[in-house]
Design a protein that fits this description.
about 100 residues; alpha+beta; three-stranded antiparallel sheet; Split barrel-like; 3 strands
Length: about 100
């Protein structure tokens, strides 16, 4: 499945606007970029989410795969929550939501 561009943009606006701190934790915990100081969701498809992570002032692309191939938009929220919670577990911190 390919998500329409406007759907990806809506999800990115939400993730970057309401969950900017969560993005950083996801990139640090699951993306192999533990020194990221910022992260913005830059894209998404049925297989995973893309982020632009800032490391020492340099923006690097990071891809975080979903646990399964998504077939519906409503699945994105569950995967984003799962990624956040898994990232917190990997980082040894308590999830805040």
């Amino acid at each position: 499945m390919t998500f329409p561009q406007e759907v990806v943009e809506q999800i990115a606006r939400h993730m970057n606007g309401d969950h900017a701190d969560d993005n950083v934790l996801i990139v640090r915990g699951l993306g192999g970029v533990p020194s990221a100081s910022a992260a913005r969701m830059s894209g998404m498809d049925a297989e995973g989410m893309d982020f632009d992570a800032t490391v020492n002032g340099i923006v690097v692309p990071v891809r975080i795969p979903f646990s399964q191939r998504l077939t519906e938009r409503r699945q994105v929220r569950g995967e984003a929550v799962r990624m956040y919670q898994q990232a917190c577990l990997e980082l040894g911190i308590q999830p805040q939501h």
